[in-house]
């Protein structure tokens, strides 16, 4: 028997599997997440959330005949000793679930690996670049593969944290949308969150007891800055009352906003330079790439104000064709003479730092190991049952999962 973290019910493993799967199925059905015949890209990082998502989507697609054409979509950021290893996990998942895998790399798309970017900017703003590039890379990979939708592994904890952070920021427009289970509904490539109501602890338990093959090593460029206050708070609420996570989400769903708040949100469009999905005339990826290619990587991340890429002195050709590597002639020439302009300002004060954590960075969703707390199972029997990426502590019968220490957060900014 085990104690379901979400409901505190005592259930056997088989009943837990069934309940977890049926709840995700109900979420999919109730919210009409998919249409028969759609081609669905499952954003796959090799971490616990996306691995369980791939397993569940494969299972439910067969069990309930959704009629979806599934494939795995992974992003290779070019982080030696981290992503190369996690991609091996995804490649095994491809075989295990029998669905094709497409890998797109930063090097191919942008001309830079994260290793090269970090060599230019250090480890302070690296996740800003990584998150912005990953978000667009997912879109580009999905378009390349003819996908209709992208499914991400964002779970209930992630959504509740996003709600909380948007409240703390007073960001009403985003607060009005952050709990949406579908984002970009009007865009050619909506994103869906089948795990919106699935607790992180239950995802971990499911992966563990199903013996799924997932990767939990921390990125070598994981940020040191503590950014997990929202997650800590949510975990505290959960410890006091497990349904608090769902209640936070439900509260956000029930908020009523003035129509005027919608007007502040940029409408979906395409970047006038690279042509990919953007909420602004020039997308964040093009802004950041411009800085990199000109040897001024902080162009995209410093904090002075600006409104638009052209006004900020961005080169008009950025994003139009092939990208140049580090140390380009542009960089040497230093054609920008104006003060550096922040991405936040260029893009309408969108908090890009948080974007780093979205779309499959397992590290930022749970620092110090991607076990969501499984290694701190209260009263764990302590038998070693896994190797490599697997959790190493077998939960005791009926054990309650105890909250872990500070963790980084993962949430969408939209
Ligand atoms: Fe990218 Fe995540 Fe590593 Fe940051 S921690 S560099 S967002 S993979």
UniProtKB/TrEMBL annotation:
Residues 270-299 form the Cytoplasmic tRNA 2-thiolation protein 1 C-terminal domain. GO terms for cellular component: cytosolic tRNA wobble base thiouridylase complex; mitochondrion. Keywords: Cytoplasm, RNA-binding, Transferase, tRNA processing, tRNA-binding. Its EC number is 2.7.7.-. Residues 299-335, 356-414 are annotated as: Disordered. Gene3D superfamilies: HUPs (3.40.50.620). It comes from the Eukaryota. Its main location: cytoplasm. Residues 307-318 have a biased composition (Basic and acidic residues). It is found in: Cytoplasm. Pathway: tRNA modification; 5-methoxycarbonylmethyl-2-thiouridine-tRNA biosynthesis. One of its GO terms (molecular function) is nucleotidyltransferase activity. Belongs to the TtcA family. CTU1/NCS6/ATPBD3 subfamily. PANTHER family: ATPASES OF THE PP SUPERFAMILY-RELATED (PTHR11807), CYTOPLASMIC TRNA 2-THIOLATION PROTEIN 1 (PTHR11807:SF12). This is Cytoplasmic tRNA 2-thiolation protein 1.
